[in-house]
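If you are new to this repository, start here. Below is one unmodified record pulled from the training split, so you can see the exact layout before writing a loader.
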Amino acid sequence: MRRAVYWFLVGVLLVNCVTAAVVGSLPAPSAPADGTGEMSEAEPEVTRETLALLGQRLAERAAALVRREQELDELLRGAEVQRRLAELNAPAGEPAAPHAAEQPAVADGASFTRLQRAYENMEPESAAAALAELAALDQQAVLQLLAGWKPRTSGQILDALTQIDPGLAARLSYEIWRRGGNFVPPPATDGR
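And here is the target side for that same chain:
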């Protein structure tokens, strides 16, 4: 959207420049043929002052468009800045709480079970790669998936994850260990 607004504003600026160039290239009006020496209402006089005024207005519009583009850029970057500030203000070692717009939707038990089975039926390497991406979106979901599988399945996937992202595998393992037996997995599933 930002790029579309930018090109729209550039187009408006270009049209204004072309218009000013065309008006500037028009020949100066000559004296009326009736000999009165006065210009009629249909033929306005184009003078250097008029052109200078048009150029000034065009420059003001261009500056206003640039200011508006900067405002739009700031609005688009605002959400990113707020997210980063929340990360900086979060206590050390704990992830920042997501904003309301970033809160993940809560899945029902049946859809979570289907997702869990889908990951279980994958090769451990494929499941690990997918879980690494999922962890970037919602680490709690990955922890629930790992806790819901049999230890052998979770171990195979964590082992494969170690090859992809050892730091993530360590963080997930630590979090599972830290929660001890208090980690309540989702409803029972048929784990491997």
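Two things worth knowing about this chain: The longest helix spans residues 48-89. The two ends are 46 Å apart (CA to CA).
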